Amino acid sequence: MSQLVTHAFDEATALSYDGRRFHGQVKAEYYNMVGPFGGVTAATMLRAALSHPERLGHPLALTVNFAAPAKVAPFVIEAIPVRTNRSTQHFMLTMMQDGEVVTTATAVFGMRRESFAHTEAVMPDVPRPADVARFVAPAPLPWMQWYHVRLIRGSAFDDVQDATTYQWMRDDPPRPLDHAALAALCDTFVPRVYVKLKRPVPIGTVTFTVYFLADPETIFRQGTNELLGVARATGFSHGYFDQVGEVWSQDGELLATTTQLVYMKAPISGSS
């Protein structure tokens, strides 16, 4: 009889609950440059709210603020449902290590009802996943091993002049999609400043948001399919830049949109 193996993503976002706070462990396998991969931190914060005994409805929005790099060590999360209305429920979350705050977040849940529906955004016309080679980073960071990405355009290694990226992406090994995994996938894009400058510079995400536009059934129906990610920047200025993005199913359903603000250390050419 075969033994079930827990996916690395589920191990990295696993939490226990003591009746007051959630407990977890930052995993070295999902580490980034100076802290854990932001996507897995966001997924962990969302999982705390999802697991709260008073939670109602399904995720609508998640905003995560990275106050300090978390260490490869245990952490605790306080998840407080601060307001429950007829249609929405609002959580405030705080992740702490050694008594100090490293991450804060808000999560909004809601009851979805039938309503007017229209998608204003347009899914780009791109090659099928099978027709695009897997991207392999020259010096991959630990977290990258857990994602299968096919870069269609917009990297630090092509001749695209704007800061727009198209990529097919999924967990690796494949894992059925849920809200936590979708939140993490929204953070797998190469930093916009790398794409624009065609070189790496020191960066760090300050705040990161995901809006879940698809209903849970549509999200779960994706299974292990590769999803199309679109990311672009609207501006780079005074040490920061933004990223706005979309995640699409292969059949054209807009699953989520995402934004983030990122610190960069990119001096004007010729200065230090």
From TrEMBL:
What Pfam families does the record tag this protein with?
A: 4HBT_3, 4HBT_3C
Q: Where is the Acyl-CoA thioesterase-like C-terminal domain?
A: 137-264
InterPro entries, sorted: ACOT8-like_C (IPR049450), Acyl-CoA_hotdog (IPR042171), HotDog_dom_sf (IPR029069), Sec_Metab_Biosynth-Assoc (IPR052389), TesB_ACOT8-like_N (IPR049449)
Q: Where is the Acyl-CoA thioesterase-like N-terminal HotDog domain?
A: 30-110
Transmembrane stretches in the record are none
The protein in question is named Thioesterase family protein
Q: What organism is recorded for this protein? A: Alicyclobacillus sendaiensis PA2
Organism placement in taxonomy: Bacteria, Bacillati, Bacillota, Bacilli, Bacillales
